[in-house]
Amino acid sequence: MISAKMVSSVTFLYLACAVLYFNYFAFRSEQLGKFATGLSWITLLLHTAAILWRWVESYQLGIGRAPLTNMYESLVFFSWCIALLYLLWERKIKSRIIGAVAMPFAFLFIAFASLAPGIFSDRIDPLIPALQSNWLHAHVITCFLGYAAFAISCGVSIMYLMKIRKKEQGKKESGWTALFPPLEFLDDLIYKTIAVGFPMLTIGIITGAAWANYAWGSYWSWDPKETWSLITWFVYAVFLHARFTREWRGKRAAFISIIGFVAVIFTYFGVNYLLAGLHSYV
Amino acid sequence: MSRNEDKELFPSLWDSLSSLRLTIALLIILSVASIFGTVIPQNASPEEYLEVYKITTYKILRILGFLDMYHAGWFIFLLALLCLNLIACSLKRFRTTLRFLTPELRLDDGQWKTHSPGNKFTQNGLPAQVLPGIRETLVRSFSPPRVVEASPAFHLFAEKGRFSRLGVYFIHLSVLVILGGSLIGSFYGFRGNVNIMEGQEADQVILRNGEHIHFPGFNVSLEKFSVSFYPTGAPKEFKSILTIREGGRKVLTEPILVNHPLTYKGISFYQSTYGLAGVERVILNIKDRESGKEVSLPAMMGNRTEIPGALSAFSLSHFLPDIKGMGPAFQVILSEPNQPQQKFLILQNHPEFEEKRPGRYSFMIKEIEPKYYSGLQVTRDPGVWVVWAGCFIMIAGFYMTFFMSHRRVWIRLTENGAATLIEIAGSSHRDRTGFEKEFQKIRQALNDSPMGLKEVKESEGH
User: Fold this and answer.
1) Which of A48, A149, B12, B439 is the most exposed place for a label (fewest CB within 10 A)?
2) What's the ipTM?
């Protein structure tokens, strides 16, 4: 399939983007930064084309469904969401620093899909009855946009913790962490990314509940996938409330944001491979 | 009773209930507990648990309510406590919010200092003459202001997104509404299953606790069930055609599929499972060993079928879906003239048994037309619309909280000799960088207005 080959090429482009952002980060050359941004937009464009082409291919096979319904497709889409959100943010905050943590995530997830074809099949299978619903699109898109925002937030939180650790050790700032933006900037960015991810996750859970109500006659049945999405929601709710208390803000909040992303990853992968439930597709 | 008396009666209770630390603790405890609920299988049978756990472990888990954790008393208690905490925190905070909801028409001198460093202009003319132009500019560049006259000075106040301050209360309220909706569902709703065979009807549903619930004045019959598969073998469609009758009169006939339920009089029917209930019709090849002739005959279960050209007849008395792993089989009762009745089994997948059986006729199964039953999930949930309303409020609350902000602008016009001193101040409770740009636009609009404003530099102003 052509789309699968496109995805493989896009994977290597993401690696190149990540390397460029790392170099920009280390050398702070404006030209390098512009090059990284340019290549990332081109990569995102090709990535979009690959997803659309896969959609076309499903019609050629007489199946005709959106490419959002199995592990392979969801990984490809997850990576797309991360790249898109990051690039939009880059435009908004006019800083390329976060690229060094966002692009590796985009690369990681698409690499997981395309470089391990034995694990996740890239076949286009027709939809089983439970997935034949228009709720699918709204549910998958909002969930993964939320996950993508959380991925970026997790990356920024790691930067925050690295920087504050150096500071607490009382060392003079040197090496990598000296190149990081100021702590307040990072802290603010963690909040802003979660302020996007949290409503998205909420809408994802709500559309999932609405869908479950149509398909199974129950909007909430404490299925492991549902429960884990709620656990994730709780963790980020803790983050948002922690910011209002003195002892929980800053370091602890950054830590919660990382735990939140671990919960996201478990909701996404762990539930499928470690726990049994209704939600066995992705 | 006023809040202060409350405080005296339960000082520590109110303080703990309205503390953010309690919120954080409860959310963490609920998360950790929920993890256990996903690891320990919920609502399984004792046999299933004993396959995984030792008997003592099983008993402990059962006593602690971990086997139906999300409905256990302590879990419900934690949720209730979270609700109380949420209400208490909201009430405590609301007094502060209320202050911002009532327009603060004019700032005192201290507030001017914090809100407006260096935003001063002068214009020729008295404040009353300058006012219309300034007001016009503010309407154009921000929002219509309210004007307070404190002769000869004027105070203008304009704001945007005031109600975004209420976003967080909307979110908190929505949690209560959603939980309330789920309570309504659990008190006034039900969930059960019913299996209906093709051609049969049902007028009640049996719940998991064994309770029977009758459909209010109607019954449901299954006209036809069909299942189709993709070439890969994966299921493509499960379809039940249902008919609703009221007092024997047909009201409607509609197909239901997975993701396409049918709701009638508040009761919803969902396609859930299906299975083989029996046989509708069997096509048999009957060979007369004496004449060598073969006929193909359809036979209904239990009906007497005559073999053409002879005085013999047979009926299919029993259907065995799978006999000792050899596939489907039927018991045949054959009556031939002047002979005792014969009973024997015929197997679809093993015609060789039939070939060995002596007698005039041999029976081969050509085709079995199955008779299905459809398993329907039947629910009534009057709380579901409350839950959706709660979800809607929550999304609106998020929009207000994360994507809107309360921005306020004050302008003060004071007499300054023959001219007017124009001071402007602004504040936003969120997204300060975004507001900074908006504020600069307002300043720019004042500067660009054809009224002949002159900016007063910081050094001149003080």
Assistant:
1) B12
2) 0.92
